[in-house]
Amino acid sequence: MPLVNRTGDVDWKKLLKEGFLGIPEPEKKKAEIKILEGINELKAKLDLQNELIIKLVAMISKMYEDGEINKDTFNKLDEFLKPYYDNPYENSS
Q1: Residue at 36 is within a domain
Q2: CA 6 to chain centroid
Q3: What is the pLDDT along the chain (93 residues), one digit of tens a residue?
Q4: Using CA atoms, how far apart are residues 12 and 6, in angstroms rounded to an integer?
């Protein structure tokens, strides 16, 4: 069974079990391209999520500053969003 099937999907179980050893070069290249496409797609989704979270936090802060939400509501929203905040002590690439 090939590493990349006719629909262009990577056989992840085979790749994880056997790796690229013994895989013909053209098939290896196809698999590498599909993997990179998947990584790029995931990165684009994560970048979009990050943008949305930043906008949401800015909107909540503005609503609090404008008096549209009270401190208790602001604190609850802040607590809910804390897991999504960037950690200033982590190195990001």
Answers
A1: yes
A2: 27
A3: 577 777 778 877 877 777 777 778 888 888 888 889 989 999 999 999 989 988 998 999 999 999 999 999 999 998 988 887 765 555 454
A4: 15
Range of the domain at 61: 12-84
Find all residues with CB under 8 Å of 38, minimum gap 6, and list them: 10
**Residue 72 and residue 66 in contact, taking contact as beta carbons nearer than 8 Å:** no
Does some domain include residue 4?
no
Tell me if 44 is assigned to some domain. yes
* Entry pTM: 0.61
Q: What token pair was written down for 71?
A: 């401190």
Number of domains present in the structure of the chain: 1
